[in-house]
Amino acid sequence: MASEIKLPELGENLTEGDVLDVRIAPGDMISQGQTLIEVEAEKSTVEVPSPLAGRVAKLFVKKGDKIHVGQTVCLVESSTAATEEALAAVSGQKTAQVDAEPKTAQPAVLERVAVVRTEQSKPVKRNGRPEEIKATVGDGQQGERQAPAREAPPSQETIPAGPATRRLARELGVDLHEVQGSAPGGRVTPEDIKAHVRDRVSAPVSRGPGVQPPSLPDFERWGPIERRPMDAVRRKTAEQMSLSWSLIPHVTQHDQADITNLEAFRKQQEGNGPKLTITAFALKASAIALQQFPQFNASVDMAGGQLVLKRYYHVGIAVDTERGLLVPVLRDVDKKSVQQLAEELTAVAERTRQRKIQGEELRGGTFTITNLGGIGGTGFTPIINYPEVAILGLSRGRFQPVVHNGQIVPRLLLPLSLSYDHRVIDGADAARFTRRIAEMLENPLVMLLHA
Question: Is residue 12 part of a domain?
Fold first, then answer.
């Protein structure tokens, strides 16, 4: 008996990824739970396990392929009784209700990977047209059959869309009735929501309806070129930056912090616990400032005409990796000491560079810090990480002559660059916020008083 193993749901709002590695080959004997492939989705790596044991009869993907949720990964031959039961449950042969809870006898891994018997995927008649019934499993759902659409008064509930899509629509203030679904049956996907938002934002500044970016010229007319495909991280970064730049009117406030005393204190602590970096102190200073200036720890709901103020403080840290820029999020920064933040920062940065960061660890941030001081520069304009409203950039500290206590002396000055959303933050408040962070960096003992 041959069974298809399909790519499961990779996470909320994730519909595709790139195959980073293939762990199996045709003819291999595999066990239940064994990793089949590694997929890079958004900015995290996901290992796809096998829901059953058997022999790999055919492989449909290779390293470097783009793969979509529901796409067949491989064909596996198995004849165990457990597999028969699992296949019957997933392919819809059982009459359990869609919303029924998972049975304990069913292997837990089948909650994440859809397995469909190829020889029993028979077309059925629906509304006079042949249509194939598909079973999907993910996040506790036993299976789902698309019922014929019923006529009903217009409401958001009648729009075919999954829970993750509806959640994204609410967060972005999108009416699902205005979105054209691209999936079978007119089902709206997260990508449809994002495309709708991009079109809506670009409409006021376009020169006319349906205006598209101009086509690129034929570069080969002037010399040889090389076309290199963008990997998943670069594509996601490009999409996120385009969204942020299109939606948010950016303004950047620049300041300097005299960190001479901070640097002396930091060196005194070397060897006593985790390494205290400037970023760790900036994390703590930002958490304190965000509590004092709550509009910087918010998001804008333009559709509802509201400012969403968050009562939690999760700060993202930009990490430079071989794959590109990733932003893992440190939770509850306000509740942790500088020492705790330094230890957590070192661990999360290392896991990020080793591709061990999970997708959920890249979400939920309320503010972001990016430090380019290790590379250089005297200042820059960081792009806000949508849907946040501010981001703090740190550049390289330099000794400069400063009038201090009536004398001209060399002091170590750290450039600060705060980009903010001018729809909700005024320039005066941005200047106060930046200065408050500078004052805490200049007086590190103030931060050490906070837990």
Answer: yes
**Same domain membership, residue 63 and residue 174:** no
Got the DSSP string for 92-151? T-S---TTPPPPTTS-GGGGTS-EEEGGG--EEEETTEEEE-----BTTB-----PPP--
**Among 385, 65, 417, 64, CA closest to 237:** 385
Residue listed under structure tokens 């403080």? 313
Place of tokens 């250089």: 376
Q: CB atoms < 10 A from the CB of 192, how many?
A: 22
pTM for the whole thing? 0.60
Cα(258)–Cα(414) distance, integer angstroms: 6
Query: Do 280 and 383 fall into the same domain?
Result: yes
- What are the distances in angstroms from CA 59 to CA 3, 26, 120, 235? 12, 6, 20, 26
Q: Domain total for the chain?
A: 3
Torsion of CA 229, 231, 235, 236, to 10 degrees: 170
Mean pLDDT by 10 residues, the chain (451 residues): 85 78 91 89 80 91 89 82 47 42 40 43 43 39 41 53 83 81 87 80 43 72 85 82 88 97 91 89 97 96 90 96 92 94 96 90 95 93 95 97 93 97 95 97 82 56
Q: Are 165 and 186 in contact (CB under 8 A)?
A: no
Q: Is residue 259 in some structural domain?
A: yes
Residue 151 lies in a domain: no
Structural contact between residues 92 and 142, judged by C-beta atoms closer than 8 angstroms: no
What is the DSSP annotation of 409-426?
EEEEEEEEEEEEETTT--
Pair (247, 128) in one structural domain: no
320 lies in which domain range? Answer: 233-448
Residues recognised as catalytic? 422
Q: How many CB atoms lie within 10 A of CB 147?
A: 8
Cβ neighbourhood burial of 6 (10 Å; 0-12, 13-18, 19+): buried
